[in-house]
Amino acid sequence: MILRRLTKALRPAGRLTGASEQRLRLALELAQMSTWEWDVETGEAGWSRDAELTAGHVPASFGGTLESFLDHVHPDDREHVRRTLLMAADEARRFELEYRLVLPDGQTRWRTAVGDVLTDDGGRATRIIGVGQDITERKEAEEKLRQAEGRYRTLVEQLPLASYVEELDAESAVYVSPQIADLVGYTADEWVSDPNFFASVLDPEDRDRVLAGFAAMHESGESFECEYRLVARDGRVVWIHDAAVVVRDPAGRPLYAQGYMIDITERKRNEEALQRSQEQLRAQMHQIEHQALHDALTDLPNRTLFQDRAEQALLTADRERSGFAVMLIDLDRFKEVNDTLGHHSGDLLLREIAGRLRRALRESDTVARLGGDEFGVVAPGLSDSSTARLIADKLRDELAVPVVVGGLTIEVEASVGIAIYPDHGEDVETLIRHADVSMYVSKNTHTPIVYAAAYDHHSLARLALVGELRRALESDEIVVHYQPESDAATGEMRRVEALARWQHPDRGLLEPDQFIPLAEQTGLIRALTSYVLDAALGQCAAWRAEGRDLGIAVNITGRELVDLGFPEEVRKLLSKWRIEPAALELEITESTIMTDPPRARVVLARLSSLGVRLAIDDFGSGYSSFGHLRQLPIDVLKIDRSFIQNMTEDTGDAAIVRSAIDLGHNLGLEVVAEGVETEEIKRHLEALGCDTLQGYHLGRPQPASRIAEVAEPQQPRRAAG
Question: DSSP letters along 183-240, please?
Answer without folding.
Answer: HHS--HHHHHH-TTHHHHHB-HHHHHHHHHHHHHHHHH---EEEEEEEE-TTS-EEEE
